[in-house]
């Protein structure tokens, strides 16, 4: 266990130092970007870049197509209260939709790595207040891409990218920089392994994707 912790800390220090050099080299700025992500990748990017969390989607995931509805009606969901309950295995939040708005159902948020309802609620509410609506970047990770999710993603007007694995019913995924295929996340036991380090070093598995996250966040 001590060895695992040592390697993790070693990797994180190397990665942070590497990204600082890249930031200076390209004159990148990450202090004002709000990363709205469907899973933990947003929080990982913030952590690695040493940037403040300007988004509530840190260590959370969404049920079904809820993430895309959340983004499409972002201000409605952000300005609405979230009710949170805790069961034996997870902490779940619910935000009510608005039938007068298109693609605005009730959505459910799964809080990952939180210990209490209070911690989840406080983190969500404090971080949602920091959103910079002038610089939003949307990152979606889909292990099973359906036509419904693709249609909703295409309707998003913010700068966006989708990392996808399996495609259901042979739907036609457009070519373009907004769509990044990844065989890695097609595995049944994926469970966020795209985010972990590749052995000893400064690279995470998502660095193997043919996508420049640093320039995307500008």
Automatic annotation (TrEMBL):
Task: Show the Pfam families listed in the entry.
Answer: DUF1919
Q: What is this protein called?
A: DUF1919 domain-containing protein
């Amino acid at each position: 266990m001590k060895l695992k912790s040592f390697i993790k800390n070693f990797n994180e220090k190397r990665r942070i130092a590497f990204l600082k050099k890249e930031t200076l080299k390209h004159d990148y700025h990450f202090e004002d970007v709000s990363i709205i992500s469907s899973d933990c990748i947003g929080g990982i990017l913030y952590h690695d870049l040493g940037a403040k969390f300007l988004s509530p989607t840190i260590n959370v995931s969404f049920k079904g197509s809820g993430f895309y509805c959340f983004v499409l009606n972002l201000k409605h969901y952000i300005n609405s209260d979230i009710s949170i309950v805790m069961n034996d295995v997870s902490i779940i939040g619910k935000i009510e939709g608005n039938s007068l708005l298109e693609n605005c159902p009730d959505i459910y948020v799964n809080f990952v790595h939180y210990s209490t309802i209070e911690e989840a609620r406080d983190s969500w509410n404090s971080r949602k207040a920091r959103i910079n609506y002038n610089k939003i970047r949307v990152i979606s990770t889909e292990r099973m891409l359906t036509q419904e999710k693709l249609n909703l993603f295409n309707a998003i007007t913010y700068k966006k990218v989708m990392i996808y694995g399996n495609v259901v019913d042979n739907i036609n995924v457009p070519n373009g920089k907004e769509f990044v295929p990844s065989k890695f996340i097609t595995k049944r036991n994926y469970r966020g392994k795209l985010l972990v380090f590749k052995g000893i070093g400064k690279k995470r598995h998502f660095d193997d994707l043919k996508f420049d996250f640093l320039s995307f966040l500008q």
